[in-house]
Amino acid sequence: MKLMVNGTALDIASARTVQELLGELKLAGKGAIVELNQEILDKSQHAETRLADGDKIEIVHFVGGG
User: Fold this and answer.
1) Do residues 56 and 37 touch, judged by C-beta distance below 8 A?
2) 36 and 1 Cβ atoms separated by less than 8 Å
3) In terms of pLDDT, which residue wins out, 35 or 15?
4) How many CB atoms within 10 Å of residue 26?
5) Does residue 6 come out as left (phi exceeding 0), alpha (psi in the -120 to 50 range) or beta?
6) Strand intervals (E) in 1-66
7) Which end of the chain offers a freer environment for a tag, N or C, measured as fewer CB atoms within 10 Å?
C-alpha cells in the first residue's frame, strides 16, 4: 500500500491501522499526533482507524532535549 507520510511517499506492506504504522515507524508510545487526510485523530482512534492506499498522513512527535 502506498501512503504519503509527512510529504514522503512510502510503500508500507504490513501496517493496516494507524497504530501499526506508528509501530513500524518506531513511533509507538512516543506521544505522536496523527492527522489522516486532514483530520486529526484522537489517540484512542489509532488502533481502530484503518489505512487505505493513497492516504495522506502527517505525524508530529515530541522530542526531548535541552
Assistant:
1) yes
2) no
3) 35
4) 8
5) left
6) 2-5, 8-11, 33-36, 39-41, 56-60
7) C
Distance CA 6, CA 4 (A): 7
Q: What is the mean pLDDT of residues 27-54?
A: 94
Closest CA to 24 of 32, 33, 15, 35: 15
508500507: which residue's cell? 12
Does the pLDDT at position 61 exceed 90? no
CA dist 18 and 41 (Å) reads 9
Q: Report the pLDDT value the prediction gives residue 13, as an integer from 0 to 100.
A: 84
pLDDT for 9: 97
Residue 32, C-alpha cell as written in the block: 505522536
